[in-house]
Write a structure and sequence with these properties.
The protein is of the alpha/beta class. It has 15 helices and ten strands.
């Protein structure tokens, strides 16, 4: 065979062999927010996609609004968002919807912005207010309505919360309006999310803003106050990806849907506690979970 033809055939074969890798040569930018659960999810996403041959640029530790803005601007390709956050904060929907309706609505509305909501997990990381169990029992507070009655009755309680919740449309002010009470301004202490748990544990505040799947709730013997008027929507944790990126890389959707199917409230609480209470590194926690589920 002519040497030139032979070399040409070899070159063509090599090109065909490399084409799947070239399809994955685009760098995928993985985002994440600035609290433990989100850091775990951005790390798991990074490790999972790397195992599938993708090049990853991880940008974790962002606030909710900047992260969403970056995704809409094409600077973040994929991250895990919560259905209730998109419904109320991003899309300004105030209708009371159940979990399935919330997911369907944000999937529809965000599709118009070039964003695809993949399969939701069973982890509902809703906002909640918590107290030390012994203190809540002593004060007779089991629900947000109980809390409202006590505050209106003159009981002085300090609330620890992050700055984002203080200003969110699904945050402090509308919650207080729903329950008909208001913490005195001097009794609202704004701090980083992680510090709220420490402040509540150490009796620096009596009430703290928590995330329902946080492992420190049982570890620190907190009790979550019942949202008896259903103020907070469902916050199903779900991977959200830019449609342009998913269309070019459908295997990302398959991989993240497989991960999403493994997650529920108990699983996330355990993972969060392993970082926040047991002090394992986020990288090790992510690796151990992915391997235990045969995802990598």
């Amino acid at each position: 065979m002519n040497k030139r033809i032979l070399l040409g055939l070899i070159g063509s074969a090599m090109a065909l062999a490399l084409s799947p890798l070239e399809a994955q040569s685009q760098t995928i930018v993985v985002g994440g927010k600035n609290f433990t659960e989100q850091q775990i999810m951005s790390e798991m996403t990074t490790q999972l996609l790397k195992s599938k041959g993708f090049t990853i640029d991880k940008r974790a530790g962002l606030g909710t609004a900047p992260l969403r803005q970056a995704q809409e601007a094409g600077q973040i390709d994929v991250y895990w968002e919560y259905t209730g956050t998109s419904l109320i904060t991003f899309n300004k929907i105030t209708d009371k919807l159940d979990a399935a309706q919330t997911y369907a609505k944000v999937k529809e509305l965000d599709a118009a912005k070039g964003l695809v909501w993949l399969n939701p997990s069973k982890a509902n990381n809703t906002y909640a207010l918590a107290m030390r169990k012994a203190d809540a029992t002593a004060k007779g507070i089991a629900s947000l309505s109980d809390l409202s009655a006590k505050v209106k009755g003159g009981l002085s309680l300090k609330l620890g919360c992050n700055a984002e919740f203080y200003a969110r449309p699904d945050g402090l002010t509308p919650m207080q309006q729903t329950y008909g009470f208001e913490f005195n301004r001097e009794n609202v202490v704004r701090m980083d999310t992680g510090l709220v748990y420490q402040a509540l544990r150490d009796s620096q505040v009596e009430v703290g803003l928590v995330f329902a799947t946080d492992g420190r709730i049982p570890a620190f013997d907190f009790v979550v106050l019942k949202d008896d008027k259903g103020f907070f929507p469902t916050y199903a944790m779900t991977p959200v990806i830019r449609k342009e990126v998913l269309d070019k890389n459908p295997k990302i959707g398959e991989a993240l849907n497989a991960l999403s199917a493994k997650l529920d409230d108990a699983t996330m609480a355990k993972l969060n506690a392993t970082v926040d209470v047991d002090k394992k590194t986020i990288e090790d926690v992510a690796t151990e979970f992915l391997k235990s589920q045969s995802l990598i």
